[in-house]
Amino acid sequence: MAGSTLASPTAEAAAPAPPAVSGRDTWRRFRRHRLAVVSVGVLGFLVLAVVLGGWVWPVAIDEIDFAATLQGPSWAHPLGTDDLGQDLLARMIYGGRISLAVGFAAMIVATVVGVVVGALAGMSRRFLDPFLMWLTDLFLSLPQLPLLLLIIYLFRDQLKQAFGVEGGVFVMIVAVIGGLRWMPVARLVRAQFLSLREKEFVEAARSQGATAWHLVTRHILPNAIGPVIVAATIEVSSAIIAESTLSFLGLGFPPDIPTWGRLLYDAKDHLDVAPHWALFPGAAIFLTVLSINFIGDGLRDALDPRRVL
């Protein structure tokens, strides 16, 4: 009896953390989702096209040719031209870099803020958790598009003076979109932390004198990172759509910076004579968002420990 009593704390202290899923097992689960595998190829092609396309198709985005206005796809202009005779392929390559950069940068902002807020709320046992969740619910209740427009109107000129025209708009859009998309990540991380902090391996580490920082960084957060990765993929697509919406409303980047949303905005008055002008940037946005969503579904299945290998 005494021996079992003495052995219990030792057994608890030696309780290991749940084994992490290996990369090979994750890939085996992920490739079962065929649409996710295809989406990786589609997204990889789009990223390579916008990153390396400038070397393959070295046409200036502001080269005007009034003799070739509103032309459809041809050998000289594979995606056609706009109302100034500018090559749409070159403009889509340039604009795609900005649209994807905004999406990934805003995702990083939203994920970092959400993880910090969710971790603080999940580890708190007193007043901090209710306050942070009240703040999260407050942000969730705000109408995002009107708030986006208000912030842009208030701070656009100051950021342009501080970072330049293109840099100021980029910082503003990333900060605003990321700053208004962290709430789902925070709620997800908090739920994961509330569940994991009561597990045996966390109690064992706590009984050995582990600090709260050690518990979070070495035991809880690594086991909660799977759902966070899935949520982050969704934030990328949401940020790309939000940037496209702002550009379509004429409130994003300046007219001489052809993001995919800006191309759609410029094409809206010529849909009857030049539908290709809106078709190609719209298809790029559609394929990017759809691919990221399918990849998120595949990652959700691959990182779910309850699924059988």
TrEMBL record:
Q: Which keywords annotate this record? A: Cell membrane, Membrane, Transmembrane, Transmembrane helix, Transport
Q: Which GO terms describe its biological process?
A: transmembrane transport
Cross-referenced Pfam families: BPD_transp_1, OppC_N
**Entry GO terms, CC:** plasma membrane
Keyword Membrane belongs to the record: yes
Which family is this sequence assigned to? Belongs to the binding-protein-dependent transport system permease family.
Tell me what this protein is called.
Peptide ABC transporter permease
Gene name of the record: dppC
